[in-house]
TrEMBL record:
<keyword id="KW-0812">Transmembrane</keyword>
<keyword id="KW-1133">Transmembrane helix</keyword>
<keyword id="KW-0472">Membrane</keyword>
<feature type="transmembrane region" description="Helical">
    <location>
        <begin position="329"/>
        <end position="354"/>
    </location>
</feature>
<dbReference type="InterPro" id="IPR005625">
    <property type="entry name" value="PepSY-ass_TM"/>
</dbReference>
<dbReference type="Pfam" id="PF03929">
    <property type="entry name" value="PepSY_TM"/>
</dbReference>
<feature type="transmembrane region" description="Helical">
    <location>
        <begin position="191"/>
        <end position="214"/>
    </location>
</feature>
<protein>
    <submittedName>
        <fullName>Putative iron-regulated membrane protein</fullName>
    </submittedName>
</protein>
<feature type="transmembrane region" description="Helical">
    <location>
        <begin position="150"/>
        <end position="170"/>
    </location>
</feature>
Length: 371
């Protein structure tokens, strides 16, 4: 295959990836751009839950009692999260009745409380709100079960699109620097497609790779040799859907008090209630930026240090690179542009394809008249 034939082949691959996936790429990329600063966005779109009156905190029992007054009959407390960065105290409660069988995180009732007064600021479903909607849209296109795999394959297709796009961008005549010119075509949309496509190609390839990595952790884990989740016990989905105990054997204050003996005076971050699948309290403290977990057996009250979640590893780095966590403002801006520009490329690509259909039809008509 000569260079011209290969260029035509890559053009067809690039074109059809863009046309077929355009309707999915646009919401996927724009939601990713919005989620770069998801905490700030949540404060903007839902200021009520952040209308705290101060940073002083009360005993955890006080927040639980206040949250219980706003829960429905049969709902059980699942988790208490203490405030962070001047935010509210959050109490999550499991819905009454049996856990749903559908894939994905279970529905929770979230109660937001003012730290100094335990006043209820807002009560909402865990699936409610713009930021949560964007998270689910970006992670699974709002399609439980199959959505995560679809997003992963879109990431694979985008990596191919980045490669073929760079191949097509490369000037066929003269030095490669000729490709940096803006006016490579008489149409503005084509010029924008060439220019934006070049500058975003490498970051978009990285974001697509990390997105596919997050969607297919087992596959990529085998490549890197990272240990997968051990078999034999309940999987993560089952643990998330487990039902909190209605009447734990250890009172909340006692469980926290026993956990503090192993935490070395570190500030309390969260408490997770025992469930029908794991009869342990999980109390998490924060020492600097490092979480310190303690397990409290609900039957005996014995305290043991919980295994620390790995802070390193390829999978963790892939997630940090993808969402920009602790990666600095510059990379976060690049991720933001990596969400905006693919939407622009999808729109300009469709315009270019539609225009090409028009002039090809005109050319065919002229040839038919001549014949």
């Amino acid at each position: 295959m000569n260079k011209l034939a290969m260029r035509r082949a890559w053009f067809q691959v690039h074109k059809w990836i863009g046309l077929i996936l355009a309707i999915l790429i646009i919401p996927l990329s724009l939601s990713g751009a919005a989620l770069v600063w998801h905490d700030a966005l949540d404060r903007i779109v839902d200021p009520t839950r952040y209308a705290v009156s101060g940073t002083t905190v009360l005993e955890p029992d006080v927040y639980v009692a206040a949250a219980m007054t706003r829960l429905k009959h049969g709902e059980r407390i699942a988790q208490l999260t203490m405030p962070e960065d001047g935010g509210p105290v959050v109490v999550a409660a499991a819905a009454a009745g049996s856990a749903p069988k559908r894939p994905g995180p279970p529905q929770r009732t979230m109660v937001y409380l003012d730290p100094p007064t335990a006043r209820v600021l807002e009560v909402s479903a865990s699936s409610g709100g713009l930021v949560r909607f964007l998270h689910v849209l970006h992670g699974s296109l709002q399609l439980p079960g199959v959505g995560r795999s679809i997003v992963g394959w879109i990431g694979v297709a985008m990596m191919i699109s980045c490669f073929t796009g760079l191949w097509l961008w490369w000037p066929t005549i003269g030095k490669w620097t000729r490709g940096l010119r803006y006016r490579r075509h008489r149409n503005a949309d084509t010029n924008l497609h060439h220019l934006f496509g070049f500058w975003i190609a490498l970051p978009l390839f990285v974001l697509s790779l990390t997105g596919a990595w997050i969607s297919f952790p087992q596959f990529f884990g085998k490549i890197t040799g990272e240990a997968s989740r051990p078999r034999g016990g309940p999987d993560r989905g089952a643990m998330m859907r487990a039902k909190p105990l209605a009447k734990p054997g250890q009172p909340l204050a006692v469980a926290i008090g026993k956990a503090r003996s192993l935490a070395g005076g570190a500030p309390l971050r969260s408490v997770t209630w025992p469930t029908d699948l794991s009869a342990d309290w999980t109390v998490t403290f924060v020492r600097g930026d490092t979480p310190v977990g303690v397990k409290i057996a609900d039957d005996t009250g014995g305290a043991t240090a919980a295994p620390a979640r790995p802070q390193t590893g390829v999978a963790r780095w892939m997630r940090r690179i993808h969402d920009g966590t602790d990666m600095g403002a510059l990379w976060q801006v690049i991720i933001f542009l990596g969400g905006i520009l693919p939407a622009v490329l999808a729109v300009t690509g469709v315009i270019m394809w539609w225009r090409a259909r028009g002039w090809k039809a005109e050319l065919a008509a002229k040839r038919a008249v001549r014949a």
